[in-house]
Amino acid sequence: MPKDPISGSADRNIHEGVIRLLPLVAVLALTACQAAGALTGADVDLGARVERVRGHLVAARGDAAAGRWDLAHVHAVHPTEDLPGIDRVLRAKDPGAASSLAARLAVLPTVSYSRDPAATAAALDEAESALATVTAAALGTDAARTLAFRASVVAALVEASAAEYDESFADGGIAVLVEYQDAHAFLARARATWAEIAPDVAASAPAAREEVGAALDALASLMPSLEPPQPAAPPARVRALAASVRSRLAAVGARAPEAAAADLASAAEHLDTAVAALDLGDVPAAT
């Protein structure tokens, strides 16, 4: 049977389009090879996402313990925002760990909605246990332990905390409690990581150690607990302290997260799949 001229033209267009994109695949593959073993923005994005989820668990746990179940439920739902970015990287390395993490996070909204303190605490413990191993599983233990990586995560968390604080503030005070609690919890995770790396920072950049420590202490005084202080500090003060942390941590190799890097890698995988399908003559799959 003669080939339909319209579909035949479409097939050629698809094939030609993919061929035109092949140089992009090559460039991305080369970039990935050149960057192997080096800290990337995508690595930092993954680490920051994991720690933000851990921050949400901190807030959910605190609110549940205080009987603030409506807020605990909101924080239990929030991890779903960062899970896709984590799952994409983790599933490629350890599908079993990715499925386990997704399952443990998925039960949190239901459990917190039940307002059962024991069940909620147990579910949060299981989720935390799964999260604690994600970064090493996805990036490798050595990469996850480098000073530059952990300093980058601290800087990213502090900036995320400042952004949440800004969103919580209106009319001279804290107007959106859940956003303030996110700010507090993200800062708590940043300080936990900072406590681990502070000795190494002191050894390589003593001035940075002093200034970052002072800035984090100042931020903690502005966000001391899940209950906002009165009066609340203006967001400009929080942003200035966050910028100081970012600036000083640059001295030990901290860099900004960049989710786009992971998105480009994903695009390259789709193009590879399209080329392979065309080689087999499977135009629908290539499309």
Structure, briefly:
With 287 residues, the chain is mainly α. It has helices at 5-35, 41-65, 69-77, 79-93, 95-106, 108-114, 117-131, 134-139, 141-144, 147-168, 177-204, 206-222, 235-249, 259-279, 283-286; strands at residues 169-170, 173-174.
Q: What characterizes the major β-sheet?
A: 2 strands, antiparallel
Total count of strands? 2
What is the radius of gyration?
23 Å
Provide the spatial order of strands within the biggest beta sheet. 1-2
Kindly state the mean pLDDT as a whole number? 86
| Separation, N- and C-terminal Cα atoms | 23 Å
Q: What is the chain-wise order of helices and strands?
A: HHHHHHHHHHEEHHHHH
Coarse structural class: mainly alpha
How many alpha or pi helices?
15
What percent of residues are in strands? under 5%
Which regions are unreliable across 5 or more consecutive residues at pLDDT < 50? 1-7, 22-36
Shape: globular
Question: What level of helicity do the residues show?
Answer: over 70%
Characteristic terms for this protein:
globular; 287 residues; 80% helix; two-stranded antiparallel sheet; single chain
Describe the structure.
With 287 residues, this protein is mainly α. The protein has 15 helices and two strands. The chain has helices spanning 5-35, 41-65, 69-77, 79-93, 95-106, 108-114, 117-131, 134-139, 141-144, 147-168, 177-204, 206-222, 235-249, 259-279, 283-286; strands at 169-170, 173-174. Strands 1-2 form a two-stranded antiparallel ribbon. The protein is globular. The relative contact order is 0.14. The model is unreliable at 1-7 and 22-36 (pLDDT under 50).
